[in-house]
Amino acid sequence: MFIRQFRYLVAVAEERHFGRAAHRCNVTQPSLSSGIKQLELELGVPIFLRGRGQRFQGLTAEGERVASWSRGVLAYCDAMRKEIAMMKKDLTGHLRLGAMPSMSPVLPWMLQAFRDQYPGVRVDVQFIGNEAMKLGLNNFALDVALTYLDKADLGRKNTLPIYTERMSLLVPDRPEYKKRKTITWREAADLPLAMLRPSMHERRFVDQVFKSVGCAPVARVESESILHLMFQVQCTELCTIIPSHFAHVPGLFKNTRALSLIEPVVSQEVGLFWAEGEIVLPMANAFVSILKVFNKSGELQRRIEEDSDLPPHTATVKKLKRA
Predict the structure, then answer these.
(1) Which of 225, 233, 310, 301 is nearest to 266 (CA)?
(2) pTM for this structure?
């Protein structure tokens, strides 16, 4: 068996087309087909379903397992090269990171520290849901993922708590809010609200908080984009609920104010996830090492809370019971 055969197989499985896979691998289609055929002969099983013509028909059950192992083999080969590069202080390549959209204001601090330590690495950030993160980690398409610890369904993965996220209400900068720093969830329920779509984790969490205080507000505008909801507040009479760290977004306070939500004060724990295994892939290991430094110093949590009107040692934080 040769590494190139595994690369050919993974390319066909992902491209679902032999011609595109050959182009991706920079070989002719006959060379690619010959390499895969040789792999089938060595393993003694058919990898691809075959019908009339040369069109991609899918993988056999054995082929799915071979493809899964092939991804692992390729990932470990790449990891070996990167680990040697780290030992030489010359790590290069891509850090592939999956994250929830609500984490976008926090990521720059983490990534700047990572880039300072590893300037030769390019960072690819994908804002995706938990299912896509799970698939990406399992298929070695992602190195690490950032999401909520209490709701994550990523299978058996290594985890590292990163920070605590709390909630604020973004309101138009009007006289009735001038002297206010906090607002209750009951008060917020009576205001005209723009909210995330009901299918999103953040919206379900917010709905659960409203339910816990006996309220069920109806959104006037819904969107999958927190930034769009913030623009709604800047330009209209609507209010929206944001993670408190969005107070760091440039231009946030133009025509708006962020009020900390209380009664109850609620929080969600955000963590870093990476694939389990006897060997931690070097790119994941490098990023984990950076965040462990943040955790030890408490710097990230301090940055997130520096504009908060609810100091972490005096606020009563309510953990909601999960439905």
Answers:
(1) 310
(2) 0.67
Upstream peptide bond of 264 is cis (omega within 30 degrees of 0): yes
Q: Is the model's pLDDT at 319 over the cut of 70?
A: no
Residue reference for tokens 């969600």: 268
Q: Which CATH number fits domain 166-267: 1.20.120.1200, 1.10.3210.10, 3.40.605.10, 3.40.190.290?
A: 3.40.190.290
* Domain ranges (residues) in the chain: 3-83, 89-163+268-311, 166-267
Q: Has residue 307 got a pLDDT over 60? A: no
d(CA 164, CA 269): 5
Question: Looking at the domain that runs over 3-83, which CATH code has it been given?
Answer: 1.10.10.10
CB 197 within 8 A of CB 224: yes
The one-letter amino acid at 176: E
> Strand 265-275 and strand 144-148: pairing?
antiparallel
Q: Which residue has the higher pLDDT, 7 or 259?
A: 259
What pLDDT does residue 309 have? 53
State the pLDDT at residue 179.
87
CATH architecture of 89-163+268-311: 3-Layer(aba) Sandwich (3.40)
Q: What is the dihedral of CA 146, 151, 153, 159, to 10 degrees?
A: 50
Residue 164 structure tokens: 């605590």
